[in-house]
Amino acid sequence: MQRRSFLRGLGLVAAASAVVTPTMLMGAEAPAGPNALSIDDAIKAITGGKSVVASPKVHMKAPEIAENGAVVPVTVTVDSPMTDADHVKAIHIFATKNSNVRCADVMLTPANGKAMFAGRVKLGESQDVMALVETSTGEFLSASQGVKVTIGGCG
Amino acid sequence: MGKRKSLIKIKPKKYKSGEIVKVSFMVMHPMETGLRKDKKTGKIVPAHYINEVKFMFDDKVFTTMKTWESLSTNPVFTINFKVPGKGELKVVYTDTQGEVNEKSKKIKPKG
Question: Residue B70 sits in a domain of what CATH number?
C-alpha cells in the first residue's frame, strides 16, 4: 500500500509540473513591465491608423552585429529641407522586440537645421530597430534595420 | 541624489553663426528598466530612467524628447542645431523619480 500511494503521488507531481512549466517559461521569455507595448499598438498610437511608407529618405545606421545589447548606437538621418513649410516634426525610435518597444520620441523644429538623431539603445535580443518619421505635411515614413545581439541588454 | 554628471559637446569646436553643428548631450544615469533583479537580494530594482529631455536656446525650446527605459545606461543624445548667434544652450532633463537637472553651455560663434 505504501508503495502504491507513493507512486500515485509521484504521478500527480509529474502532471502538475507538466502543466506549470510551459506557462512559467513563457513568463520568463517576455517579462511584461508596466510600460509593455507591442510594436503595432505603438505605431497606431502615433499614426492614428494612417499608412506608413518605407522611404529611402530615411537613413538608419546601426551595427549589424552588436556584441553587447546593453549599448547599441543608432543614428537616424532624414533628407529634409527643414523649412517652416516642410520639416520633420518627429523621429520615433522603436526596438521591435523589447518589452517596451518605444525608445525615444524626438520632436524637432526648423531650428535644428538638419533632421538627425543619434542615441544609444538597449536591445534584449536580436531584432529590428525601426525609425518612424513624421513630417509637417502629415506623411509617415519609416526605415528599419536588423541587429544581431550576442549578449542581451535587458534583465 | 546629488547632481548627476553631464556634458554638452559641440562639433565642430569652432563654428560661425548660421552654421549647422552637432550637439551631443551625455549624462551619467543608471536607466533602470524596472525588470532587472538585484543578484544579491533577489529583489526587482525599481524603474528609474530619464523620461524627458528638452534642448533650449536662450530659454526657447527647440527640441523635445520623450524617452523610455529602452535607452542604454549613461545615454547620449545627439541632434543638429543651426547656430543663430550668441547665446546660451541649455538642456533640462527629468526622470521617473522626479529629479530635474539641467546643464548649460555658452554659444560663442566666431564670425
Answer: 2.60.40.10
Give the largest CA-CA distance in chain A: 87
| List of chain B residues whose C-beta atoms are within 8 Å of the C-beta of residue A95 | 70
Structural domain count of chain B? 1
By the CB < 8 Å criterion, does A31 face chain B?
yes
Residue A146, sorted as left (phi over 0), alpha (psi -120 to 50) or beta, turns out to be beta
Chain B contact present for A102, CB below 8 A: yes
Interface confidence (ipTM) of the complex: 0.86
Nearest to B79 by CA among A146, A55, A94, A105: A105
Residue B30 belongs to some domain of the structure? yes
Model confidence at A27, in pLDDT bands (50, 70, 90)? very low
pLDDT by residue (tens digit) across B45-104? 999 999 999 999 999 999 999 999 889 999 999 999 999 999 999 999 999 999 899 999
In a domain, B1, yes or no: no
Of B63, B64, B75, the CB nearest to A119: B75
Per the structure, the complete domain to which residue B36 belongs is given by 6-107
